[in-house]
Design the sequence.
């Protein structure tokens, strides 16, 4: 890579609370839907759970020291709602807030910008017991939680993000059932999507005047062929995956092809101006309305229904690209494509790539993890970012997913996304070759001089 990024471009890495913290019963934390879900037989590969995860709750200082060593300029993490409000409403748990204060003090002492995500899927179980995201009240409970976190932490946070990937929370949580709470209720999944959008809008209000954005996971999508049925299939999937969230947040409308019934005033709230849009990107889908194919794009590891509400008949085809250990096709130009599309089709908004990365079957050999595939993945996607910037996209940063190997939801600990290897028995952290490569990229603001190291 021989390109440079604009001054001030954020080079970060991302994590989320349930995937790394552990300490699920400590300092007054209440249960979340993931604590419940992981106990259900057959829901997570190997019966894995996040009780200990990678023990970040106790090792955060060591982890921030690793970030500093890598030269990260920004770190994106999430706050565990049930640490702050064990019952999902009412009383605030000061010990929960203290943890994030200590974490951010450590980051700020090392000149690393804290990017705080309020919701990365760990809904307090008490709120799920009252109906979860299909229930409108959950959005208002989220706004209260956002206000409490904001009041306590606003002086330390660089950028706030509301809801991480509402698509996953709604459709994997309530339609396919592959994620917590594991319900298969397609109609309710659409309600959940709307209430997650509403939660975003209400939280933006609660967080002002701080710098805030929403966070969506976008896919590049290609019809398998010219047949109008393939084109229609691609448009359907684009509607559910991308436009349902982009249109709502950035234009205040739902796409005409999705049956949403917001109440009066909801769309104004949902589309309240934001300062930045956080974009998570991993892959491209090739879809067909004619061919037989996999019914689900994500090939869930456990028994799951379809997340594609109203588009269950669409087939996901093999696009013929190399894949990661998740089976996700690698298509770096798709990242440029989705960024350029947001810049072209929507009102102007600064963008950040808030997650991008790859799982591979890493091995430790002689105290080292050689992961050339991950380096190639990151390099290609950073170059795609650079091309997007050259095309005029206002891209302000890039966060690798993930800083460290961690609990990969329904896949358990079997899928390693980290720049830093974690031995899940000893909790020993070992920066992979990709971490050293990324450190060099950051030091040289994007330029990589080949070395033999
Ligand atoms: C994203 C999630 C993140 C992680 C990556 C691989 O959808 O936001 O927590 O699981 O995928």
Sequence:
């Amino acid at each position: 890579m021989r390109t440079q990024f604009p001054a001030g471009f954020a080079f970060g890495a991302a994590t989320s609370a349930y995937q790394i913290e552990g300490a699920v019963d400590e300092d007054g934390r209440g249960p979340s839907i993931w604590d419940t879900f992981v106990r259900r037989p057959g829901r997570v590969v190997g019966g894995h759970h996040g009780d200990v995860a990678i023990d970040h709750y106790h090792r955060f200082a060591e982890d921030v020291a690793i970030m500093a060593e890598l030269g990260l300029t920004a770190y994106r993490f999430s706050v565990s709602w049930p640490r702050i409000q064990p019952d999902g409403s009412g009383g605030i748990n000061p010990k929960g807030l203290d943890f994030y204060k200590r974490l951010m003090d450590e980051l700020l002492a090392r000149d690393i910008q804290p990017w705080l995500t309020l919701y990365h899927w760990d809904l307090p179980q008490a709120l799920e017991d009252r109906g979860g995201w299909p229930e409108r009240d959950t959005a208002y409970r989220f706004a209260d939680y956002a206000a409490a976190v904001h009041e306590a932490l606003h002086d330390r946070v660089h950028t706030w993000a509301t809801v991480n990937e509402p698509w996953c929370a709604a459709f994997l949580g309530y339609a396919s059932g592959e994620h917590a709470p594991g319900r298969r209720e397609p109609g309710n999944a659409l309600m959940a999507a709307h209430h997650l959008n509403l939660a975003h809008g209400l939280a933006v209000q609660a967080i002002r005047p701080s710098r805030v954005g929403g966070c969506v996971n976008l896919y590049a999508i290609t019809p398998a062929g010219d047949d109008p049925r393939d084109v229609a299939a691609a448009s359907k999937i684009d509607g559910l995956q991308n436009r349902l969230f982009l249109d709502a947040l950035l234009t205040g409308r739902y796409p005409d092809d999705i049956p949403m019934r917001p109440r009066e005033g909801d769309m104004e709230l949902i589309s309240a101006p934001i300062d930045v849009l956080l974009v998570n990107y991993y892959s491209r889908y090739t879809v067909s309305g004619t061919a037989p194919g996999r019914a689900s794009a994500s090939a869930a590891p456990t028994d799951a229904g379809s997340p594609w509400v109203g588009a269950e008949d669409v087939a996901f085809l093999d696009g013929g690209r190399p894949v990661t250990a998740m089976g996700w096709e690698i298509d770096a130009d798709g990242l440029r494509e989705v960024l350029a599309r947001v810049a072209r089709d929507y009102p102007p908004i600064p963008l950040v790539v808030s997650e991008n990365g790859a799982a591979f079957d890493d091995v430790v050999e002689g105290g080292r993890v050689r992961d050339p595939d991950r380096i190639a993945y990151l390099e290609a996607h950073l170059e795609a970012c650079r091309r997007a910037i050259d095309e005029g996209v206002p891209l302000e940063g890039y966060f690798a997913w993930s800083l460290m190997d961690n609990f990969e939801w329904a896949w358990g600990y079997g899928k390693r996304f980290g720049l830093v290897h974690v031995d899940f028995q000893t909790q020993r952290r070992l920066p992979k070759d990709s971490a050293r490569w990324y450190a060099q990229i950051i030091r040289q603001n994007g330029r990589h001089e080949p070395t033999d190291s």
Summary: The domain at 10-445 is CATH 3.20.20.80 (TIM Barrel).
